[in-house]
Amino acid sequence: MNTNSLPSDFLPILLQFFVALGFVIFVMLATHLLGPKRKAKAKLETFECGIESKGNARIPFSIKYFLVAILFVLFDVEVIFMYPWAVNFKELGLTGIWEMLVFMGLLLTGFYYIIKKGALKWE
Amino acid sequence: MTLYLFYFLSFLAVLSALMVVVSKNPVHSVLYLIMTFFAIAGHYVLLNAQFLAAVHVIVYAGAIMVLFLYVIMMLNLNADTEPQKGKWLRVAATVAGGILMVVLVGALRSAADTLPVTAHDNQIGMIKNLGKVLYKDFMLPFEISSILFLVAMVGAVMLGKKEIK
Q1: What are the distances in angstroms from CA B6 to CA A53, B3, B40, B45, B72?
Q2: Could you say which of A56, A91, B53, B137 is the most buried, measured as most Cβ atoms within 10 Å of its Cβ?
Q3: Could you give the ipTM of this predicted complex?
Q4: B53 alpha carbon, distance to own chain's centre
Q5: Which strand (E) or helix (H) includes residue B153?
């Protein structure tokens, strides 16, 4: 495996990025140009399964979604720490395993706390 | 080529960062902030710190921005409840921001003199080298970061969860 890597290796990814962006822009422009336009009041109204909509979308919602999201971010970052560890797994040897066990142990303590508190229960 | 990319990314980063502050709609601000994060991820790639770039996109543009959107959705942003900001608050904010800028400029000016000019390994940002440094030289900070996670978890649960009766 060639381990010497340079920023120019990211050229295909950049290209893909531009293709994805270009496709979105192209489709959005095409629908505007090709589609028929009818601007009656009934057409422009928010459609919600035939039920008349009330108020607007700016209503405060439950904090529980936020709690789940923030816990997700914490465990997300935890998993990212495991990538460089896994790449160097053989070189780090037993020290690496103990290191990660302490790290995971502390996080699993947190997870146990979350489960015990019932923070993920939806009531 | 790299120089032009650098200028383009810097321009994009600064412009979208300004738009975060300037745009009136908070949801637009968040979208511009995502653009800033992508531009900064591009800078990481240019610096050959590819793992950092990927993590930056996943954690910041992916997860943290979702949290930002949640916070915005939790605020009551109807036009009639927008708090009116007084004139003096604006003056105070301008003065505080200006002082922060002076501090930053001062810090960066002195940093330019002290930066060591040494030839460095251009593979230093690769995931393998990063892992070696992180799990050998910076073992203790790594373990302490798990305590930080624990504190964050407990804090989030304490604030966000009602006691079960």
Answers
A1: 48, 5, 10, 10, 32
A2: B53
A3: 0.72
A4: 13
A5: helix B139-160
**Nearest CA among B141, B127, B135 for reference residue B44:** B127
Question: Which candidate from B145, B154, B164 shows the least CB-CB separation from A110?
Answer: B154
- Do residues B36 and B16 touch, judged by C-beta distance below 8 A? yes
Residue B146 has pLDDT above 70, yes or no: yes
A vs B: CB pairs below 8 A: 135
Phi then psi dihedrals of residue A51, to 5 deg: -85, 140
Quick one: pLDDT at residue A28? 93
Would you say residue B81 has pLDDT above 60? no
CB of A16 within 8 Å of any CB in chain B?
no
CA pair distance A17, B57, nearest whole angstrom: 13
State the greatest distance between any 2 C-alpha atoms of chain A, in Å, as a whole number.
71
Half-sphere exposure (CA, 13 Å, Cβ side) for A80?
Answer: 19
**Which has more pLDDT, B25 or A104?**
A104
DSSP annotation of B124: T
Neighbour-count burial of B3, counting CB atoms closer than 10 A to its CB (0-12 exposed, 13-18 middle, 19+ buried): exposed
Q: Which residues of B touch A84 (CB under 8 A)?
A: 51, 127-128, 130-131, 134-135
Residues 42-61 of chain A whose Cβ lies under 8 A from any Cβ of chain B: 56, 58, 60-61
Candidate from A65, A104, A118 with C-beta closest to B164: A118
- Record the pTM: 0.76
